[in-house]
Specification:
2 strands, 60% helix, single chain, globular, 4 helices, mainly alpha, 78 residues
Length: 78
Amino acid sequence: DAGLIFLLPPSEKELQKRLLGRRTEDESAVKKRLEASRGEIAMKDHYKYVIINDELEKTLQALKEILKKEQLTPHAQS
């Protein structure tokens, strides 16, 4: 009954750009993360909510709406 949320990158190309832009990992580590992300993204249908993380404000608003909605469920009220 958990309200699981999956934050989906707009595209694999954008995810790669973001990971490389952080400069926290070398190129081989980024490649491994991209490979792992394909498997993670394939599991998105197992989540209650999927948000495409393309614009920060839009993403935050969607998260707020989900949190508000989830607070109204009987499980969250008890």
